[in-house]
Amino acid sequence: MKNRSLKQAVVLLSGGLDSATVLYLAKAKGYICRCLIFNYGQLHKKEICQAVKIAKAAGCTYKILKIDFPWKGSALLDRKIKIPEKAVRGIPVTYVPSRNIIFLSFAASFAETIGAQAIFVGAHAQDYSGYPDCRPEFFKVFSKMIKSGTCGGFSILAPLLRMNKSQIILAGAKLGVPFELTWSCYRGTKIPCARCDSCYYRAKGFKEAGLVDPLIKK
């Protein structure tokens, strides 16, 4: 049921620190947030569990949407593709083809149905250096398409788009983001592997921010 008297937002929540920061930023802007969490066949489900914990900690409702990429095409979906253990140039094998297009399309349908004013997504500069569906021009064009193809009247917002990881971490710290609940590692191990590129960028971000990652035991 639509309720346009409320300032509502759909937030794409993955369980990582970027999407968690976006959620808390949207809340700080006065939005009632509805978290959309995707179970898309990723090899580990830890990020889904952490996303649920983050949504609960933020006092937000959430939906877990199960979809499938039967053709795989990514190291996050196919055990035959090795997860890289260092940062790489170009498009990494962890890229899931057209994932943001698909996620945002579901989010647009959800937003239009509930009468939300915005969709928040945690894409940022570090992502769009390698992931084509995280580039500023993508969001510009996709937003234009959504406006012409729906009657929802909502905006797609990527407030972290031009920030690096350390800037995101500092912003999240000010917002009170529970970083101890976030999960960035591409593996679903008990503690972060400290080898994949996602772990590398997270560690680099915390170091540059001058903060200690609560997931790293000293």
Structure description:
The structure is a single chain. The protein has 218 residues and is of the alpha/beta class. It has one domain: HUPs (Rossmann fold). It has seven helices and five strands. It has helices at 17-28, 46-57, 99-114, 125-128, 136-149, 165-175, 197-209, and strands at residues 8-12, 32-39, 61-66, 118-120, 155-157. Strands 3-2-1-4-5 form a five-stranded parallel β-sheet, with helices on both faces. Strand 1 (8-12), helix 1 (17-28) and strand 2 form a beta-alpha-beta unit. The longest helix is centred in the middle third of the chain and has 16 residues, at 99-114.
List the SSEs and their pairings.
Blueprint: E1 8-12, H1 17-28, E2 32-39, H2 46-57, E3 61-66, H3 99-114, E4 118-120, H4 125-128, H5 136-149, E5 155-157, H6 165-175, H7 197-209
Helix pairs in contact: 1-6, 6-7
